[in-house]
Amino acid sequence: MRHHTTKRRRIAKIIGAAVTGAALGVSALVALPATSSAASPVATGAAALMKSYDSGTGQIGTGWWNSAVALSTIETYQQTTGDSQYAYAVSGAFDKHKASNFENDYMDDTGWWGLAWVQAYDITGNPAYLQMARTDANYVHGYWDDTCGGGVWWSKAKGYKNAIPNELFLQLTAALHNRVAGDTTYLNWARQEWSWFKGSGMINSSHLVNDGLTSSCKNNGQQTWSYNQGVVLAGLSELSQATGDTGLITTARQIADAATSKLSRNGVLTESCESSGCGADAASFKGIFVRGLRQLATAARTTAYDTWLNAQAASVTAHDTNSGGFGVSWAGPMREESSSSTASAEDALVAAVRGSATPPGSTGAVASGISGKCLDDYKASSTPGAKAQIWDCNGGPSQQWTADGQTLRANGLCLDVTGAGTANGTLVELWTCNGGANQQWRAAGGALTNPASGRCLDDPHSGTTNGTQLQIWDCNGGANQKWTVPGS
């Protein structure tokens, strides 16, 4: 395993010695702006990043944990824009490394990969990806103990308890609870993690997260790296969804407000190492922060961070790009270009495209583009096989749909393409939620697309007759394929 040169240079000592000095993704059913054309900066950035993909290794770039982060960048790009041309990177990484379960000596490395598989599951519905994320969470949990009152160790060597592996464990376990039916284990672990983390002292009086703990279990005062601020935002967003505790969002916003203010120079996010050289690891950090900030903004249903996020993207495109990719300094000048710095800057571009998204769990009517008609669960049925139909909008229980991840649920069932069909005219019904690709829907341009078939939810012949069963059909932009999802 290649050392994390930058991060490990700044985390110089370990517990047991005198410590003197020092990673999807929410996938939501959202209406996306039409800014993901082939010529757009965000699409150009994705193409530049994928030049670093090695089909022999299945990795984007050469660093192990950085390639997991870069894969999450591409997954977030796909979730945001609907552009699936790089989906091969997901299966490529999985097939090349699944025998190892994506585990190594470092808990943060394993956590990054676990989160990438959560996103892969959200995109594809493939249960193998969800199971891998569970395997990774279970592995990390094996390095939780009572030293310093709790928390997971940074590595198998058990020499340092620090922020990043614990933040990743929080996000991963909360995300798993939100996706694993009937789970209690991951939720308990997530609650234990947050209870320990918030009491550990790593969040300082300025509401920023320092790197870790000393041998005496005190805040070590080391660098407030941007990624340590970003992962906790995503973790608290997932945990808030899991528990309904909005106070977690309030805490996350305190950290977000402190980070956007204190870690910016002239309004642009700046890592402390930029003037001297960040190396391969810290080059990834800022993108992780903006990704977490966008997830928080989505969960909080706020546009408060949009101006700041837009400023990051504007600075990247104006000062930190060339024909090959992006550098480490978003304010410029262009320097230290790598796959890691390109992924990081691409995260900034994607976060700006995303806008104010619909958080998972939003409930309400799904209105058709045909005036007065809504998506309807036949007789508010909770029996698998009930037809998905159009009906006059009435606000009743048969028209209360919950957008959760990339599924639409009503009365305990999921909107489902019958028999996982992909042909034009395949009927749409409600079925037991199972995570299948035929229950995945992506909202873009006003349409609801089923990625597995590449076809859109369609009202046959633009019918207006109550009870008309819906189908999938080639996407054509017609009013009979326009739908407004809850919260959008």
Automatic annotation (TrEMBL):
Keyword Magnesium in record: no
Record-linked Pfam families: Glyco_hydro_76 (PF03663), Ricin_B_lectin (PF00652)
Residue ranges constituting the Ricin B lectin domain according to the UniProt record: 361-486
GO MF term set: hydrolase activity
Keyword Transport (UniProt): no
UniProt keywords, alphabetically: Hydrolase, Signal
Domain of life: Bacteria
Signal peptide as annotated in the record: 1-38
CDD domains (alphabetical): beta-trefoil_Ricin_laminarinase
Record's protein name: Glycoside hydrolase family 76 protein
Transmembrane segments: none
